[in-house]
Hints:
38% of the residues lie in helices and 27% in strands. The protein is built from 3 helices and 6 strands. The protein has a 6-stranded antiparallel sheet.
Amino acid sequence: MEILPFQLVIHQSRWIKRYVTILFLLVMLAIVNLPVEKIVMCIMLSGLWFFWRSCRHKYFHPGGNQFQQVIFANYSWLLKKQETINPVYLHSAVVWHWLVVMNFRSITSRQRHVVLLLPDSIDREQLRRLRVLLRYLPVYGLSTPE
């Protein structure tokens, strides 16, 4: 069975930004309510603030640490980040209606890559096609179909 090649252009998810921001605020609220001295609380809050700023800069700004495209063609996968293209194979995937998590392993090195897709991360039609592909077709591992 021939599978047409496709390219997924990944956008930053507003849902993830909201969840991470709410989690940060809850941790901050928990630190404020700890029964510790004020100097210790200030150190903990400043450490949390610097951690928040580094994560925000690394993951929430355009051109951050996430992959921008996932390409599937000829039963092989490619991950593209800026100008770098990584050949990978799909090790496993979790496919739900509102969430797709793909675990890739690099062919050229021992790196692992995780791509998390929510409904606002990619186009609706592309997400539907990807879910069908991952659920029903042999696209895992290094083998090619017969």
